[in-house]
Amino acid sequence: MLSSVHNPRFLLLHYRWPNLHFPPKPHRQTTAKALHTTQTLTLSSTATSPPQSQILTIRESLLSRRTTAVELAAGYLNRLRRTEPHLKSFLYVSDTVLKEAEEIDRRIQRNEELGPLAGVLVAVKDNICTADMPSTAGSRILDGYRPPFDATAVRKLKECGAIVVGKTNLDEFGMGSTTEGSAYQVTANPWDLSRVPGGSSGGSAAAVSARQCVVSLGSDTGGSVRQPASFCGVVGLKPTYGRVSRYGLVAYASSLDVIGCVGSSVADAGIILHMISGHDRFDATSSKLHVPDFTSQFISRDLLESKPLKGLRVGVIRETLDDGVDPEVISLVRGAASHLEELGCIVTEVSLPSFSLGLPAYFILASSESSSNLSRYDGVRYGNQVVADEINSLYGDSRAKGFGSEVKMRILMGTYALSAGYYDAYYKRAQQVRTLIQESFKEVLDKNDILISPAAPSAAYKIGEKKNDPLAMYAGDIMTVNVNLAGLPALVLPCGFVGGGSTCLPVGFQMIGAAFDEEKLLKVGHIFEQTLQGCSFVPPLVADDFAC
Amino acid sequence: MGCCKLLLLHTTIKMGSRALLLLRPITSTKDLYFKNRFLSEALIVEKRRVRSYSVRSTIHPPDLPRLAKTARISLTPDEVEEFAPKIQQVVDWFGQLQAVDLQSIQPAIRADTKGENLRDDMPETFDNRDAMIAAVPSYEEPFIKVPKVLNKE
Question: Looking at the record's lineage, which domain of life comes first (chain A) (predicted)?
């Protein structure tokens, strides 16, 4: 019943990496409920078996006492130490990981209850606050800053037993698409060290891709989780606006920002989302809507029917397969659509007429909101302060020294767009465009269960390639910004490779769902992933670790 | 406290829409958040009223030194030279929205998060006060120190 895919790229075994050392689970369901029961697994692997949940495998191996939390953590830390000089995905690595793992092992010894994420190494984007680690948001202005609290998402993960392994690199304050905009270092793509990992959550995506951690948190204002997920060959999940509390997320553009999840499988991204979702009294924009168990419908590949997605209506967004998009990417997305068709979906083309207006509207809103949000960095209450003899120089010079060029430019653009008398011409118009976009999405999502598009117009490009051309850089966000304007959930998952040989790069496609319907995206994504043949998304850099 | 008041005044003069900053509390104390929120709500109302009558008939290109002064960011002459064409290019590109017919379309502030989620307006004490104070660059119990605020202007 495993579908063959029309696109020949799917059938090319560019990399025939042996299976991860995590045993596949022949289980009926990999539900969150199953997290609480000991599972017995049998080892049976094929050359390119689909990605398995690292989280569930870790849990199983801890509960069966096949391995210890310390051994698991040491494995990731060793890989992190070996790969980090090349990748530079972390701005800070915790020195208490093994100590925390020891504590988990002690709990296991004493037969105490284990949190569902016990022993899972989570990396956190450095614009998400952690009380016991620095949180710089990639900016010099917050160099050395230690927040007095954990972000709600981080607190929830810790309460589930997760170990925070460190803080990942990003474009300063999330403003960028390559991670070159970090004030500290440039992160490399694990698939090709001369290329960018995408951004702004480039460190979070690279870290998961290179298996330096199990899963990671990122943030997505205009595609900052999804585009790097595509560039690095991992799964990136942008939840619905309001699904996850943003308390402790360094604000960039408040009407668009969400915290998102990165994992090496759809199941892992879904499990993490499940753990961090829900209303939080410290974030008035977090929704009180019920959080379903996103993971309850993950069905093992062996138990799938021949047409597991029969009748599901899928709309391919016409405007996203237009000029300016790499033909190889278009063919991969069309291949993904064919694959969904094989699985029983009814695939049609849909149109979002206001699609192209999303990009300028997004940048007006994002830069305007950032000019307001970043006014808090004045060098007075936290962050870096320069010596000055009067207050305005203190503000001006602290920012001059603390902010990078892109941040300064966006603040200035936002200040311009919000200048007295220009509000109606820029900010209000952009908000009106947002209404148009929300309406056009609603219209097509009334007739379709999910929409699909590329996650980015191309695969990862070279470091430095677009650095000095802001509009070229902004254009790369065309596939993702509309989703933020509409506040919808979207899942990016790898669907194949472009290029070949040593320049082979992963590409992800994007599935967009109705507001608060992450469940459907995860279900479809999981089935897609489990039935996609011939692709293994473990980069060559760390593939040796996963030999049988 | 004088310092705090000054900061608020400063930001209200400087920035366009205070409301944006306040969609969620981030690193400020909760107390400050409450003060800000209500101050900002008052400002939004006021601003909307003013704005609806003060739309400029012509749009002038960005004047970088003036913008930098408004945003309270010191720029070097090299930065002015580097940023000006880039900002002009992006602002020109923003301009494409002027051509779109948006009459009678309601602006959307953000996506609908389904339901009213505001909590009661009750002050709470932040429990890690010491860590917060430790982050202040210049502190002299019980004051946050800043240079003189009454300048020649």
Answer: Eukaryota
Pairwise CB contact (< 8 Å): A416 & B91: yes
* Tens digits of residue pLDDT in A463-506: 999 888 888 889 999 999 999 999 999 999 999 999 877 779 99
Give the pLDDT score at B73. Answer: 97
What are A236's two structure tokens?
């990136």
Give the chain B residue nearest A442 (alpha carbons). B111
Q: What does B99-124 look like in DSSP terms, one character per residue?
A: GS--TTPPP-SS---SS--PPP----
Q: How many domains does chain A have?
A: 1
Alpha-carbon distance A499 to nearest alpha carbon in chain B (angstroms): 33
The answer to whether the CB of A116 falls within 8 A of the CB of A35 is yes
DSSP A397-443: HHHHHHS-HHHHHHHHHHHHHTSTTTTIIIIIHHHHHHHHHHHHHHH
User: Other C-beta atoms within 10 Å of B149: how many?
Assistant: 14
CB A321 within 8 A of CB A355: no
Q: How far is CA A432 from the centre of its chain?
A: 28
Residue A124: domain span: 4-309+480-546
Encoded tokens for A460:
């990862």
Mutate to test the interface with A, among B3, B14, B26, B36 (most CBs of A within 10 A): B26
Q: What's the CATH code of the domain at A524?
A: 3.90.1300.10
CB of A378 within 8 A of CB of A395? yes
Residue A39, C-beta contacts closer than 8 angstroms, at least 6 positions apart:
A25, A27, A56, A59, A60, A63, A64
A35 pLDDT tier (thresholds 50, 70, 90): very low
Other C-beta atoms closer than 10 Å to the C-beta of A193 total 12
Q: How far is CA B92 from CA A4, A396, A413, B61, B85, in A?
A: 48, 27, 11, 9, 10
Q: Tell how far CA B8 is from the center of its chain.
A: 10
- Which of these ranges, A193-202, A527-536, B27-36, has the smallest mean pLDDT? B27-36
ipTM for the assembly: 0.85
Residues 6+ apart with CB under 8 A from A176: A199, A200, A406, A473
Which chain B residue has the Cα nearest residue A435?
B108
Q: Which residue is closest to B27 within chain A, CA to CA?
A: A248
Lookup: tokens for A467: 């650095």
**Contacts of residue B37, Cβ cutoff 8 Å, sequence gap at least 6:** B22
Reduced to 3 states, what is the DSSP secondary structure of residue A136? coil
Are the C-beta atoms of A168 and A90 separated by less than 8 Å? yes
CA distance B134 to B20: 27
Report the run of H or E that residue B20 belongs to, with start and end: helix B18-21
Give the pair of three-digit tokens for residue A177: 């698409």
Beta carbons of B79 and A434 less than 8 Å apart: no
Question: CB B24 to CB A284 under 8 A?
Answer: yes
Measured from the Cβ of residue A426, the count of other Cβ atoms closer than 10 Å reads 28
CB-defined contacts A:B, below 8 A: 287
Report the catalytic residues of A.
125, 200, 224
Tokens of residue B42, six digits: 């008052």
A429 with B68: Cβ contact below 8 A: no
- The answer to whether the Cβ–Cβ distance between A408 and B73 falls below 8 Å is yes
The encoded tokens of residue A32 equal 């969150």
* Closest CB to B83 among A241, A388, A412: A412
Helix, strand, or coil here: A343? Answer: coil
Domain assignment present for A525: yes
By the 8 A CB rule, do A319 and A356 touch?
Answer: yes
Judge whether A255 lies within some domain.
yes
pLDDT value, residue B32: 36
Phi, psi (degrees; rounded to nearest 5) at B143: -110, 145
User: Which residues in chain B touch residue A255, judged by CB atoms under 8 angstroms apart?
Assistant: 20, 23, 109-111
Residue with tokens 């993950």: A298
Instruction: Tell me whether residue A409 is in a domain.
Output: no
| Residue A173 covered by a domain | yes
